[in-house]
Amino acid sequence: MKEIGPYDGGVHMFVEDTRSPDPRQLHFMRWLVENNHFDRPAVGPASGEFADVALEAFKPVVDSQP
Fold it and tell me: Across 1-66, where does the E strand assignment appear?
């Protein structure tokens, strides 16, 4: 079982440690939005500090051999 994080009395709840977003999950979420499989439409092009991370992680690899 996963341990519960520290208790934050200011918000009266347990909190988790911060973690970096997974670029695979970001890429999949963007794909859902761009292909109309998400419950809300895209508001605009991908932007922000994690937009390039998601795109760079999944550039297609082209093999030059037949």
Answer: 7-8, 13-14
**pTM of the full predicted structure?**
0.53
Q: Are 30 and 54 in contact (CB under 8 A)?
A: yes
> Is residue 6 within 8 Å of residue 14, measured between CB atoms?
yes
Structure tokens at 55: 């795109």
Over its C-alpha atoms, the chain yields an Rg (Å, rounded) of 18
Which residues make beta-bridge pairs with 8? 13
Backbone angles phi, psi at 25, to 5 degrees: -70, -40
**Spacing of C-alpha 46 from chain mean position:** 12
Q: What residues does each domain of the chain span?
A: 18-57
Question: Tens digit of pLDDT for each residue in 18-52?
Answer: 888 888 888 888 888 888 888 888 888 878 887 77
